[in-house]
Amino acid sequence: MKKNENNFAFIDAANLYEGIKSLNWKLDYKRFRVWLAEKYSVKTAYLFIGLIPKYKDLYTGLQEAGFTLVYKEVVYDGNGKPKGNCDADLVLKVTQDAYENIFNKAIIVTSDGDYAGLVKFLLEKNKLEAILSPAEVKKCSILLKRTNAAIIYINDKRSILEAKKEKAPNKDGTS
Do the Cβ atoms of 116 and 16 come closer than 8 Å? Predict the structure, then answer.
């Protein structure tokens, strides 16, 4: 990857979080942002995320790590579970930026087949660098796989992207 490229990452935050969680590890978002910059020359990393006020410290940390947050108002289902589906917002932003030629190449972070149409569009425009899938190979959507786009599995980078586990204090309370 050329260091002077102006590549953008478009990240489905819920899909990233849930995918990594299902693999039983925790992503270090600061390391992930640095890796995106170094590996893919990502200058801007959009993180599409539901807005829930009690998570303001999380949002601040993500911004400090270098992500540009794009908030989606959440609604709550019958069980009180928040739903902040960002798919349409992400697709619209990528398409708009591609047409305005704001970036060289896009990196799409998702395992969701709903983005297959977007991936095909980016391939036709020669604007896709890769898909980064937070799910394991067998759980990444077949619709994404059928696009024949390059898919990189984030789990394969676990050794460099995993959050370090906090050291537990000794029984006497010292660390």
Answer: no
CA nearest neighbour of 113 among 84, 157, 149, 69: 149
pTM of the shown model: 0.90
If one counts every other C-beta atom within 10 angstroms of the C-beta of residue 140, the result is 20
pLDDT digits (tens, 9 = 90+) for 49-85: 999 989 999 999 999 999 999 999 888 888 888 887 8
Three-state SS string over 27-81 comes to: ECHHHHHHHHHHHHCEEEEEEEEEECHHHHHHHHHHHHCCCEEEEEECEECCCCC
Measure CA of the first residue to CA of the last residue in the chain; give whole Å: 42
Spatial distance between the Cα atoms of 47 and 27, rounded to a whole number of angstroms: 14
The CATH class of 7-161 is alpha beta
Summarize pLDDT for 14-49 with one digit per residue, the tens: 999 999 999 999 999 999 999 999 999 999 999 999
The domain locations on the chain are: 7-161
